[in-house]
Amino acid sequence: MRSTSTAARRIGWLLIGASLALHFLTVVAFARQPDVLAAYTVMPIWVWGGMGLLLSGGAYLLFRAPLSLIVTAVWALTLLLGADEARVIANLGTQAPEPGRPDPIEGRRPIRVITLNAARFRYGDPSQDLAEWRPDIVILQEASGYRVKSVADQLYSGNGDYRSFSLNGVATRWKITREVRNPDPRFQYFNHNVTVELPDGRTIEVANLHLSSAATDLRLWRPDCWRTHRTNRRQRGVEMAVALGILRDTTDFPGVQPVILAGDFNAPPGDPVQRQLDRDFEDAFLVAGTGWGNTFQRRIPVLRLDQIHTTRHFTPVRCRVVTTRHSDHRFVVADLLLE
Questions:
Q1: How many other C-beta atoms are found inside a 10 Å radius of the C-beta of residue 92?
Q2: What is the mean pLDDT of the chain?
Q3: Rounded CA gap, 295 and 63, in Å?
Q4: Cβ contacts of 29 within 8 Å, gap of 6 or more
Q5: Domain residue spans in the chain?
Q6: Are the C-beta atoms of 290 and 105 separated by less than 8 Å?
Q7: pLDDT of 244-279, one tens digit each?
Q8: Is domain 97-338 in CATH 3.60.10.10, yes or no?
Q9: Cis omega (within 30 of 0) for bond into 254
Q10: Do the Cβ atoms of 175 and 227 come closer than 8 Å?
Q11: What is the pLDDT of residues 151-192, one digit of tens each?
């Protein structure tokens, strides 16, 4: 009996130790985001947190191991502070966008923006789903030119404007006065900018991004998996730097020009790729988002890859994610006040 009790205690302490080691690795990996650990952080922090909670909770339930409840509480706090899904708790009470024309805020009507990866229309035409929200600007990825035109015609009854380049496109109820295409063939796929003129004569720059697809190899026991994820992340970092460089070269950015930068980033918030935006942009969902913000995969969304970022000329007042049957992504709706 005594030997059985001793073995149980040892197993309990082993589970606690494993949970603490996993916690240390997780905190370091997600706080510092080193490229060498890109394969580890490609999954949401709550995946690793769930494993840590299983270890510490199992230690308590099976063996009543000392400190197991404390370790469980530490994990819970870590997930509350570190999970992207928990960061919008501060927005409790914020009004969510509703279908139809957006309600005025302080007597002003906000600009409604939608971004959607349309998956090359393999799931059908999302125009009717988009039209319910009466957007002023729609930013599309994986949509050919004639598809972007079709969306613009259906949303704005032939009175809108649109531009398309490669598989990126922008449709708007207003006039597009300029289009910037990246001449470098290595980067044509992911970046497309247009200048939109508002009814009062002001202009805003709309940058449409679709960064390289994330690596999906999760065989973490293989060294080439870690190399693939490291190289993949660095590629998106280069693409983001090029996109921001085009904005600087072709607009007064950062400066007086308001910019909306949106699309499919193929990287969740907190990824080093997105840290390039921290100085000049705000994430509309973090500022004003409500509900579950993850956008991929549509049926069981575990990653927030589709996002809308704005310069501080805008105040995001409402933001949410909406499901459509016509893509493998959900789309993001944001109401923005231009100061």
A1: 7
A2: 92
A3: 40
A4: 37, 40, 41
A5: 2-82, 97-338
A6: no
A7: 999 999 999 998 999 999 999 999 888 999 999 999
A8: yes
A9: yes
A10: no
A11: 999 999 989 999 999 899 999 999 999 999 877 766 656 778
Structure tokens at 24: 């240390």
Q: List, in sequence order, every residue forming a beta bridge with 315; answer none if it has no partner.
A: 337
User: Sheet containing 306-310: which strands, arranged edge to edge?
Assistant: 175-181, 191-197, 203-210, 259-264, 306-310, 282-283
Burial 23-40 (b: 16+ CB within 10 A, else e): beebbebbeebebebbbb
d(CA 271, CA 307): 13
Show the beta-strand stretches assigned E in 166-294.
Answer: 168-172, 175-181, 191-197, 203-210, 259-264, 282-283
Place of tokens 């899904």: 85
The band of 319, judged by pLDDT with boundaries at 50, 70 and 90, is very high
Distances (CA, A) of 273 to 159, 201, 221, 244: 37, 34, 25, 12
Q: What residues contact residue 164 under an 8 Å CB cut-off, 6+ apart?
A: 143, 144, 145, 148, 149, 170, 192
Q: Indicate yes or no: pTM above 0.85.
A: yes
3-state helix vs strand vs coil in the chain, percent to 5: 40, 25, 35
Which tokens belong to 147?
A: 């598809």
- Please spell the DSSP secondary structure of 84-111, one letter per residue: GGGGGGGGTTPPPP-SSSPPPBTTBPPE
